[in-house]
Amino acid sequence: MKSFSPDIIHQVELLEKLHSRQAVIGIVGLGYVGLPLSLTYAEVGFQVLGLDIDQAKADAINQGQSYINHIDKTRVAQARQEKRLEATIDFSRAAEVDALILCVPTPLNQYREPDLSFIRATMSALLPYLRPGQILSLESTTYPGTTEEELRPLIQQRGFIVGQDIFLVYSPEREDPGNAHFNTAMIPKVMGGSTSACSEVGVALYEQAISEVVTVSSTRAAEMTKLLENIHRAVNIGLMNELKPLADRMGIDLYEVIRAAATKPFGFVPYYPGPGLGGHCIPIDPFYLTWKAREYGMHTRFIELAGEINSGMPSYVADKIMDALNKVGKPLNGSKVLILGIAYKKNVDDMRESPSVELMDLLQQKGADVAYSDPFFPNFPVMRRYNFDLQSVEISAESLKSFDVVVLATDHDTYDYDLIEASSSLLVDSRGRFASSAKITRA
After folding, report:
1. Can you tell me the distance from the alpha carbon of 406 to that of 428, in angstroms, rounded to the nearest whole number?
2. Catalytic annotation present for 198
3. Fewest CB within a 10 Å sphere: which of 71, 276, 285, 335?
4. What domains appear along the chain, each with residue ranges and CATH number?
């Protein structure tokens, strides 16, 4: 039997387990990132242990059920039937796995500063059960330096040598919920290791389940890559949102202009305006970099301006709703307003940072009688910042006519747009779905 230096024995053993798919994969955080990643590994033959603090999620998985709309429950049931997937809230079982992939939230606090409490709490729960021969990968979006400044010292405090005992990498998630064209396995995986040995193990971890692994020179480069991707989108959407009021004043249909510009086969990528930014990435990620930039005495003015424009869009839509009501002699105060769509984007059951909810709050503060209709949310969920004791209104000709104004905030494909246009007495469209008319106001 071939012998190896003690310095690389854990690396060799772990590489063998990964390449042979005998390694046990631990996914920490079973939400919109963790659940599809768990299924992806299970479907290529790995044993997967999901860890989460939510007993309901663990129970659903163990019963073969999916709690995320766009993830087919048959995938979960199949993984359970083949005994490839199990979920638990017992973090002591982290000692059983060979890879720990962290998929936990990284929100902003009330001052738009990074909130790493979920990462820190997760690491505190895992640290007692780390053992030599494991790889730890952080997938949560964060500022450059988090992996080295937050995770590495904690691992070293346990007496482990990073790159020899424990292998530390950063690989940002790239999920796009509801996108039928790209699943987890198809989206190239960016990965940076804390050391060269960490990077080698990281490639072995991800190349078993993901079609392509893109290796960068460091964890910081990988962290910056994810921020760049979402800042690129935030800035370009901000540009469109800045142009929307201008085009409206000039009597120009901006959506028509964007579609026309998109026919150019080079040099132009279409982005579209809306009622604001939502989701777990675009409204949040740019501020991670702006916060970190201040440590270096720099200010990211371009990024902050885009954030300011995008953050102001719910107020712009609220103003357009007031304008539409004024034209028919009605005040917003006391008017019945129906918001179509409270998810942050169409065809998903995800309300994180949804601009629709902020719009509802603004309208309610101004005295409107607000209701909503969303096929993905029969009841308005409990949220940290907002509290609406509401149920989704069933769309019909009768129900639409009962409202003073109907507002398209999230353009789910399941809506009957012909019915909405025909039956709404007044319609405000923030998604460019309808042509302007006497009763339709673009916002």
Report:
1. 6
2. no
3. 71
4. 9-217 (3.40.50.720), 219-311 (3.40.50.720), 313-442 (3.40.50.720)
